[in-house]
Amino acid sequence: MGNKNIYLFGIILLSSFFNVIYGIDSIYKCVIPQGEAYCQSLDGGLVCPNLPACIQFITLNFNVGPTDLISVLYEQNAVFDNHCGYEISIPTSIYISVAGSFPATINCQNANRFILFNTSFTEYSSWLNITVNSLTIINTYNDDAAYPDGGAISVVGYQSAQLTLNQVEMTTSYSSGNGGFVSSIYDITIVDSQFNTGTALKSGGAIYSPGAIVSHNSIYNSCESKASGGAIFGETVNFMTSKATGNYAEYNGGAVSCTSCYMFFSIVQSNNAGLIGGAVYSYSGMVQFGSMQFIQNQAGVCGGALHLINATGSVTTSNFTMNKANYGGALCLNYLPDQGSIDFLDSTFYNNIATEQGGALHISSSLKPNVIYHGIFFNNSYPTLSCDEESSFLCNNNCTISSCDRCGSSPCLEDYDRMLSACFDTVCHSDFEPQGTPHFISQAYASQPQNLYLLDDNNFKHTNHTRPKKSRFPRGGPFL
Ligand SMILES: *[C@@H]1O[C@H](CO)[C@@H](O)[C@H](O)[C@H]1NC(C)=O
Ligand SMILES: *[C@@H]1O[C@H](CO)[C@@H](O)[C@H](O)[C@H]1NC(C)=O
Ligand SMILES: *[C@@H]1O[C@H](CO)[C@@H](O)[C@H](O)[C@H]1NC(C)=O
Ligand SMILES: *[C@@H]1O[C@H](CO)[C@@H](O)[C@H](O)[C@H]1NC(C)=O
Ligand SMILES: *[C@@H]1O[C@H](CO)[C@@H](O)[C@H](O)[C@H]1NC(C)=O
Ligand SMILES: *[C@@H]1O[C@H](CO)[C@@H](O)[C@H](O)[C@H]1NC(C)=O
Ligand SMILES: *[C@@H]1O[C@H](CO)[C@@H](O)[C@H](O)[C@H]1NC(C)=O
User: How far does the signal peptide extend, from start to end residue (predicted)?
Assistant: First the structure.
């Protein structure tokens, strides 16, 4: 764009109207005070009555291009009622914030969404930025038949745009599509923000994107999806130092539904899914869970905390406490043919409950063994681990499983299908891997016969437990 001479009704605007910074050509600033009747340029720059008026004034009077920035600033500490229901064609990147350091409140009074951004009106080789900063946005509502996604904020259009929410607090929203509060067809980044009581008739009770969603230091509370992802639905979800509590999904992923999920240093507590994955549901992606706390989540069928289907990855230094489901009180793992495995490292499973099988873990159709390193299983409902005929856990180098119903306090692994409670004087055996780390396979229905020892109740040592293969989803279909 280059520098421009800016003349506005013969008035030369002050320099605060016009900045040049690296990477952006021009910044057009517009302030929205309360009760302003029309756009005018004052000493400090342009003021307008509302956001569409700002955009319209700037685009009519200047030759705004995709490397410029429009900055719209609400009066701080003020409440703006019904400054809502906008559909904005953005010609460039846009920054919406407050003039000052205290947030402003937008109250849509359950009548409208706040804003729909349509990016189709410009073309740029890279991504535009849409940033919303330091706003409290309440009582938003969207049942727009043309575009029902995003109860408060929607991003659509052919030009890619990164939506960033920073220090935004949203409370009470409804969307008749995806994304109770926010939906974008492109990526979304959320920093230092909070979302309470959002509802989506489809997926993502708070946030929805078919692209990447990044959450830092943010809180999702009491949101609800009638489909998948009580708080968040995304293709790739990065969830860091964030918290999801009391969210609900009617089908899967009480808090988060993703293809690939990377979740670290976060708390996911008291979320609930009608079917599977009380906290998180992932399908056919990479997963990494590190230093996570999964507490008191619940699923109607499988995976009180996590239900991972055809996923590859790891669970590291995480804590699963008091989660509950019919199968897999803490986790259900289910694989499509020959795909994936999950490693568990230094994770703890306390007091999880399965009303059927797998107080801590239930696993099915896993041809590759799932390895547990240094796992601690304590007081989960009996049996602690359950598998179907094709699956196995490999307990590698000290996993401790205690308080098994039939074994008293000695460590055990459970073999549900043969009704065998396998108790071991030491958890890890090295019989079949002479030079490797000591390890132990819980069940011998691996594709090749293997040596292992299982002790039954009469202390009889069983070896070579190769078992006939059964159909792939033997009990209750692929979810189990
Ligand atoms: C966005 O703008 C384009 C171009 O005018 C239009 O075709 C499209 O319908 C708009 N999208 C929505 C959801 O309004
Ligand atoms: C969008 O933001 C990124 C990161 O701050 C920046 O590198 C990029 O240049 C911005 N894009 C535009 C079109 O301003
Ligand atoms: C399973 O996941 C892998 C990689 O994550 C993917 O390539 C494959 O297509 C998935 N299988 C199915 C049947 O979805
Ligand atoms: C796991 O969570 C429980 C319940 O909040 C807590 O008491 C325990 O200290 C946690 N353990 C670890 C290793 O973080
Ligand atoms: C074992 O788990 C059950 C169910 O979560 C819980 O009620 C009980 O207090 C736990 N016992 C111990 C010793 O933690
Ligand atoms: C195995 O884990 C238990 C519980 O964390 C620990 O007390 C014990 O020292 C570990 N043993 C080895 C050999 O690492
Ligand atoms: C277990 O089966 C393998 C393969 O059939 C065989 O080589 C091995 O000797 C058997 N071990 C025992 C203890 O029967």
Answer: 1-23
Cα separations in angstroms, 318 against 86, 109, 168, 265: 43, 41, 29, 9
pTM recorded for the entire structure: 0.83
Residue 351 structural domain: 259-480
Residue minimizing CA distance to atom 9 of ligand 3:
284
61 backbone φψ class: left, alpha, beta (φ>0; ψ -120 to 50): alpha
Six-digit token string for 99 = 């003039």
Distance CA 174, CA 142 (A): 6
Note the pLDDT tens digit of each residue in 10-27: 333 433 444 444 456 789
What is the per-residue pLDDT across 157-212, written as a single tens digit (0 to 9) for each? 999 999 999 999 999 999 999 999 999 999 999 999 999 999 999 999 999 999 99
Please state the domain count of the chain: 1
CA of 313 to the centre of ligand 6 (A): 24
| Ligand 4 centroid – CA 342 distance (Å) | 22
Beta bridge partners of 350: 321, 378
Residue 414 maps to a domain:
yes
**467 found inside a domain:** yes
